[in-house]
């Protein structure tokens, strides 16, 4: 475990790593919803049930099912509420809207199960506006309905219908609110149409309709409502400024089959993550833009249509679900910059504590064993001066007669080669001038290199 944590902190600090792999669904996984501050995860699929996962233990804490068998497949999920309470809205394949209230930290109670569309028309998208407590729901046949929550879903009438429009027969793939909930935009599959509505409490007025240059498989709006990412089904993902029909960036993703792919913004809108039809998840950085990372889930035929992302102060999470018969959920994690800095400070403090503890242990050992080592240390310490003097004597040259470096006038005696060498070394060390010699009653500079030669 320590080696794994070290590997994650050093090598994977700027990349996502597989945090957990969850199994439990039978058949394709269609949608996700984060509950609380990255506390729980809700997942829905073709097996007509919703699993609630704990994002700390990565265990399934609860499974929401329909005892009457009226739901059909789970097509979309939306969480409405604060950290510890709120509503989980479920859209089903048989046109039903189901609402569960979170009564406790991990307990959900059903408060609403209503048929809002025809049985043969599935709920395709749900979007909630916290500014005006309104919720938009779209069906497979193109209808869009607007509801208002009655005191945040209080019984007996948690939802109040406001209006219904049927702008097109194309399948809506996504709904998003703009301008503090005053505008609603809808994205439609294959037709590439973008409709933007402005509504009041009773009616809906169409402001404009624009056609994009490609089909729309999925769409997501960033947190600042500035950019929209669209799965164009063909070549990858396109980035559009809000309200425009011409993309500013085209993010290429290879495709072998024309299937819709899940795509969302991640890391507070700085990146885009999306699925594929060949078992890979692609992450793009929008600053460049460029491909940042590719994560593998499944094989070359695995279809990934469900992708979700959420960030907290400590970590970024990406959740992806496969559409195989034996499907599974992959949870990818990446620490935030703040978490990395905090971890670095903690490691530095931990290192200081380890060093301090080591010094304390060392001093303690010295204290309890001083009777064994102190006498020998004292004796050795007292013998150091004599050893130093002996070493100095060993370094001194042998005693030699005192030789004047100025030549005697009475003879032609020459200093020995050892004396000459010592003289040269000492003069270089002391930076003294060259040796002087007396010739013809005058001092002259003598070439030391020639002293060893025979003089005339």
UniProtKB/TrEMBL annotation:
Which stretches are transmembrane? 353-373
Cross-referenced Pfam families: WD40 (PF00400)
InterPro entries found in the cross-reference section: WD40/YVTN_repeat-like_dom_sf (IPR015943), WD40_repeat_CS (IPR019775), WD40_repeat_dom_sf (IPR036322), WD40_rpt (IPR001680), WDR55/POC1 (IPR050505)
Q: Its domain of life?
A: Eukaryota
UniProt repeat feature WD, residue ranges: 22-63
Keywords carried by this UniProt record = Membrane, Repeat, Transmembrane, Transmembrane helix, WD repeat
Q: What is this protein called?
A: Uncharacterized protein
Query: Which lineage?
Result: Eukaryota, Fungi, Dikarya, Basidiomycota, Agaricomycotina
């Amino acid at each position: 475990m320590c080696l794994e944590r070290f590997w994650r902190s050093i090598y994977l600090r700027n990349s996502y790593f597989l945090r957990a792999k969850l199994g439990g669904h039978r058949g394709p996984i269609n949608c996700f919803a984060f509950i609380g501050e990255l506390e729980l995860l809700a997942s829905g699929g073709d097996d007509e049930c919703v699993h609630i996962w704990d994002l700390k233990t990565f265990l399934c804490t609860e499974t929401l099912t329909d005892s009457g068998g009226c739901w059909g497949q789970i097509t979309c999920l939306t969480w409405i509420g604060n950290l510890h309470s709120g509503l989980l809205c479920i859209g089903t394949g048989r046109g039903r809207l189901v609402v569960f209230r979170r009564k406790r930290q991990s307990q959900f109670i059903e408060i609403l199960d209503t048929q809002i569309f025809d049985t043969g028309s599935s709920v395709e998208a749900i979007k909630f506006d916290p500014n005006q407590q309104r919720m938009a729901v779209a069906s497979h046949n193109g209808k869009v309905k607007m509801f208002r929550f009655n005191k945040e879903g209080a019984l007996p009438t948690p939802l109040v219908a406001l209006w219904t429009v049927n702008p097109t027969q194309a399948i809506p793939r996504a709904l998003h609110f703009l301008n503090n909930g005053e505008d609603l935009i809808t994205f439609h599959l294959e037709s590439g149409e973008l409709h933007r509505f402005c509504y009041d409490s009773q009616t809906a007025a169409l402001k404009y309709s624009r056609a994009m240059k490609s089909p729309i498989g999925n769409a997501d709006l960033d947190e600042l409502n500035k950019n929209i990412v669209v799965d164009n089904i063909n070549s990858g993902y396109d980035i559009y400024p809000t309200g425009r029909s011409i993309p500013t960036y085209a993010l290429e993703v290879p495709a072998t089959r024309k299937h819709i792919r899940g795509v969302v913004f991640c890391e507070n809108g700085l990146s885009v993550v999306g699925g594929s039809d060949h078992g890979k998840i692609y992450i793009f950085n929008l600053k460049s833009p460029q491909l940042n990372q590719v994560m593998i889930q499944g094989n070359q035929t695995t279809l990934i249509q469900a992708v979700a992302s959420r960030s907290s102060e400590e970590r970024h999470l990406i959740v992806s679900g496969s559409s195989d018969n034996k499907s599974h959920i992959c949870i990818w994690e990446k620490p935030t910059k703040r978490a990395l800095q905090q971890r670095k400070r903690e490691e530095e403090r931990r290192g200081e504590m380890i060093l301090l503890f080591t010094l304390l242990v060392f001093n303690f050992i010295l204290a309890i064993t001083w009777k064994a080592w102190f006498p020998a240390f004292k004796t050795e310490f007292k013998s150091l001066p004599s050893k130093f003097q002996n070493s100095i004597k060993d370094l001194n040259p042998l005693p030699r007669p005192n030789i004047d470096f100025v030549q005697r006038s009475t003879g032609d005696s020459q200093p020995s080669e050892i004396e000459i060498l010592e003289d040269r070394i000492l003069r270089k060390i002391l930076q003294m001038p060259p040796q002087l010699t007396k010739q013809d009653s005058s001092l002259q500079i003598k070439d030391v290199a020639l002293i060893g030669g025979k003089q005339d």
